[in-house]
DNA sequence: TAGATGACTAATA
DNA sequence: CTATTAGCCATCT
């Protein structure tokens, strides 16, 4: 069981219409220092179609420039299709769309 | 083995 | 709000 597995597990739990950040995912796993490694996990082994990478954004609420499965436009369409509204700058309001794991009782489900 | 890189974040100015 | 600096750690060369 590796760090990557945990990352994918958490990302797959993100509900539609919500987004999460790398730091948040890392924190959920229990290792907030590895925010960057979360990015590596998604970049290195994206499990296309299985892990909703498009719901993971940085702390600015903007998508990372290196979106690797279809391009940023495809990602924006996916998020918009889920009800997320983009700002003029291409960012999203984390205050509004940030996923709150506490509501999903995730703490008990991470280590399945 | 060592140094550089990166889908990051927090602190500081 | 933005720009810069430092810390971080798995992976790459």
Give the number of domains: 1
Mean pLDDT: 89
What is the subunit arrangement here?
single chain
Distance linking N and C termini:
11 Å
CATH architecture: Orthogonal Bundle
Rough shape? globular
The largest sheet is: 2 strands, parallel
- Measured as a percent range, the helix fraction is 25-40%
Order of helices and strands: HEHHEHH
Description:
The chain is 38% helix and 4% strand. It is mostly helical. The protein has one domain: Winged helix-like DNA-binding domain superfamily/Winged helix DNA-binding domain (Arc Repressor Mutant, subunit A, Orthogonal Bundle), CATH 1.10.10.10. Strands 1-2 form a two-stranded parallel sheet. Helix 1 packs across helix 2. The chain is globular and about 40 Å long. The structure holds a DNA duplex (13 and 13 nucleotides).
What are its keywords?
single chain; 4% strand; globular; 112 residues; DNA-binding; Arc Repressor Mutant, subunit A; mainly alpha
Layout of helices and strands:
Blueprint: H1 3-12, E1 20-21, H2 22-29, H3 35-44, E2 56-57, H4 72-81, H5 94-97
Parallel strand pairs: 1-2
Helix pairs in contact: 1-2, 2-3
The structure holds a DNA duplex (13 and 13 nucleotides).
């Amino acid at each position: 069981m590796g760090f990557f597995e945990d990352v994918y597990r958490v990302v797959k739990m993100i509900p539609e219409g919500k987004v999460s950040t790398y730091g948040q995912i890392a924190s959920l796993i229990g290792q907030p220092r590895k925010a960057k490694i979360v990015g590596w996990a998604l970049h290195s082994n994206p499990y296309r179609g299985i892990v909703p990478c498009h719901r993971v954004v940085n702390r600015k609420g903007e998508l990372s420039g290196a979106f690797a499965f279809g391009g940023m436009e495809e990602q924006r369409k996916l998020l918009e299709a889920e009800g997320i509204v983009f700002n003029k700058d291409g960012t999203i309001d984390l205050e509004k769309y940030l996923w709150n794991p506490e509501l999903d009782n995730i703490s008990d489900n991470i280590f399945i």
